[in-house]
Amino acid sequence: MMRNRRFRRHMGLRTRLTLIFGLGALMLSILLASLTYFTARHYIISQRKTSDIHQSFANASLVLSSLRSSSAKVPAVIGSLGTSPGARSVILSNHQWYATSISIGEDSLPAPFKHMVLSGHPADQTFMLSNTPEFAVGIPMPSVNARYFEIFSLEDLDGILRVLLLVLAIAALVTTIAGAATGRWAASRVLRSLVTTSQAAVDIAGGNLFTKLETTGDSDLDPLFESFNQMADSLAKRIERETRFTSDVSHELRSPLTTLATTAEILQRHAHGLDARSRQALDLLVAEISRFQAMVQELLEISTMDSGSAKLSLEAVDASALVRHIAHALARDSVPVTISPALDGLEIMVDKRRLERVFTNLVDNANQHAGGLTGISAEEKYPYISISVIDRGPGVPPDQRQKVFERFYRGKAAGRRGNATGTGLGLALALEHIKLHQGRMSIENTVSGENRFVVDIPLRVAQNGKPASGPLACSDDLDGPDDPESPAEGNGQISGNDMVQQGNGASPQVRKRRTSGSRRRIGRIGRTGTLLAAATLLLASCTVTAQGNPTPLPRKSIPFGLMDKSPLNPPLNAKNAPVEVPVTIYLVAATGRLWPVTRDVAFPAPLDSLLNALASGPTKSEDSFGLSTAIPQQSGSLTARTVGSTVEVSLSSTFGTLSGPAQIQATAQIVFTVTALPGITGASFKMNGHAIDVPNALGALLPGPVNRSDYAALAPLLPVTSPAPSRRTVSTSTTAGPAARSTTTGGPPTS
Fold first, then answer.
1. What separation in angstroms does the CA of 425 have from each of 141, 405, 407, 431, 492?
2. What is 226-307's CATH topology?
3. Given this structure, which CATH class describes domain 313-464+470-503?
4. pLDDT (tens digit per residue) in 392-442
5. Nearest-CA neighbor of 156 among 35, 33, 45, 36?
6. Are 229 and 212 in contact (CB under 8 A)?
7. pLDDT tens digits, one per residue of 615-634
8. What pLDDT is recorded for position 124?
9. Angle of helix 426-436 relative to helix 276-306, nearest 10 degrees?
């Protein structure tokens, strides 16, 4: 029984050490796997992106060289590009989109990324397209009014990272299992000496005071074993001396006590000749001598048990008949006796003399301290027979239910003397007798508030005082109590060596403890597996992820000349005289959308000349085609200047009187016209020297520079088909330089 209890303790601690090693290995493997994975992932993705960007630069340079040729066609140029497998090219040239694959186009590009590149800023971005990771690079080419995009598939890279992740996850799992196995082996090695020491301590507690630990030759453990042996020897000698002293004193006291008792009896026979005070003194003397004799007798019994020499004289008796015999002998049929029918014919192995002494002490305790006995009951509570002795007592407070079994504890009667006070050893001696039977004793309160002393006797006890069969379940496992319904500390229950016997079948409480322990172990394993699965899923979500915003490419990384802008200085003829340059302005068609019109504008003030040509309105031919302008001629000259890739347009106060769709079309005309110049990506507006907000195609006010994408609903109708072209020359203001000649190309919109 002791060995089984120690085994369960050993198993509980070994399980915890195994879990600690396993969890430690799991955390370490996850940490190493994460560091390895994220380092490799960062390096692989960075190298791949760098290679893709360099390829994009090379292809963009090829496109730039081809588009500078007047005879080059964009479809032929894009078809001649040598891209790597999985790479597709997209070109925006003169407001037309061209792509190497029908699966890729303008709508495939993320909106923020496309907007940044169209604004003249090179950028890259990783995004998801049809659940496939893609990497896009965008490069503006202002000198040819084009934007080059190249999209690279990262599906193969994503597959490589997933394989790497799977390998690392398997390695982490193997490492965890190896760590748990190592922990279990190490725990077994370490706990082997602990188990030996625990067995020796249990043997000493069981009365074998001369138990020794054998040295193993281990320099770390041998000093512990030697110290333990010395402690055991010292303890054995001390207990032996105290036991011998108690036994000797008790024996020596028996003779004088017998003499005193005999003398007191003689004096009592002649008490009639004494006066009242002498008779009272004689009665007190006789009571104290009787109490002293009982105390000495009980001390002799306790010293015998403490020395380990007490033995049980077991015999098979009928449980029901035993209870009836005890009740008749002690209560003389004056109290009700309740016996469960399950006890009829049930034989148990007990020492009848010791059990009679136990119940004699309980009945005496009820009569002396609790107002008398009120009932005796017996029932089977596997693996015990439970016998209850009920008295009229007011109930023992919970904080004193264990103290009443201590030696010489007499409660409130500790300060009184007399026949009814007792010696304070009756319940302690009764508990020792029950411990010899491997039973237990407890105190409860009935519903009506009375005391109930419960004695639990094991169903099977062998001749040596230990269970005859069936394993034992430890009630104080190192893992803590498994049964939530087990008695809590302070309820007064004291068991023989704190053990519960099991037969061939387990009681509901034992089965519940087993189930609870199994559930805890399964829960630990489940939590460990869940943690590993969560870590794997976390890593799996970090293969190739999409970026929320595009990343601008540094200008210094762009090859020389790739993003050069066309100079706005006027081209010169052979005589260094200004020439007229054909540029495009945008009028309003009958459908409300914009229409491209060609004007010959004289340098050196192309912006001002262009804006004033726009404000001068359509020619007669253009007007006959339904073209008009939303910019009032009363606005006078519109002045502008370039600030980087943005044109800053100054409007007159007359322009500010417009509102609604007319103002939207007017600002859209200006934006489309000025961004038709090479190198210009947007426009900002001022009035009276102060920046103003302008509406987009939906009427929302925009505080910053605007571009063509803000007026997508008014985008020009392309391609332009026209009958015979018409021309006229438009005179510009003084600030615009020489007069400008204009040509209108196009016809009325057919849709």
1. 107, 8, 5, 10, 17
2. Helix Hairpins (1.10.287)
3. alpha beta
4. 877 777 777 777 777 777 665 554 554 445 666 777 778 888 888 888 888
5. 45
6. yes
7. 887 888 888 888 888 888 76
8. 94
9. 20
